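Sanity check

After download, print the first record. It should look like this:
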Amino acid sequence: MGRLITPTELPRWVPGKVICASDGLGWRGVALRGYRYLGQDVYIPPMRDYMIVSYRRGLTPMERRFDGAWTQTRCAPGSISLLTRAQRSNWNWTENVDVCHVYLTEEMLSRLASEALDQQIANVRLNDVLNVEDPVLTAGVEAIQREASTQSDGGNLYVEGIAMQLSLHLLRHYAELRVDAREDPSRLSSMQRRCVVEYIDAHLNETLSLQTLATLAGLGLASFTRRFRASFGCAPYAYVTARRVERARRLLTDPRRALKDIASDCGFSDQAHMTRMFRTRLGTTPGALRAEALR
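Expected structure tokens:
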């Protein structure tokens, strides 16, 4: 198949006037480009990202060949086209149109699909959709375009939130998912890892039982301990201790919190226990870290 092209390379194959873009804004997992296109007949090589096309101005007959089959329709403001990643396609339209492209990365869609299904997803493929009226997709693209134009405070987080909503909508209504059956049997599965980590974080201030964690994963003690170490690179006790130290470090930045209360909230037996763990892992004490953070 060769190299996959990026959104900024697309004009080499589909020439048009750029009318808006998110270039240089530092968005993660999502990008936007708006174009003014004359009627044309074009070939698009396989693209790196998934693409949503929102039609903003102009009415045109539209033809597209996707996976060997041609589809014909008429696109107008409110129409949406979808193109899956790594897919060759041919497009033909005769009238001038303004469109807005939103690009979503493979990492974003695959991660959300894996979280939604509690399984590792090998591939996400968008269906052959040349023209659909979908208010959710249209509104999402418009919101991202406005943010690219106004560049308001907190724009990165705002856009990433919208992109996640669009991705989940695509996964629910327009996608085919292929589960990765190649999970390493010597490690915890993605679902087991997620279940165990969420339980540890939710019960970090309590006494955590190795048997409880093994039961959550549906494994015996020996098998769980072996697979946990292979998955996380350390024993369960060391992992839990590291999470407790990290939580305590965050709480130290609040000068109103007493050290003994932080120790209790993070699952240490007492303040002295917390201090010993800090010395062992960080080479310093909670008090010294707090003083440094509050300078």
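If your output differs, re-run the checksum step. Summary of this record's structure: DSSP finds ten helices and twelve strands in the chain.
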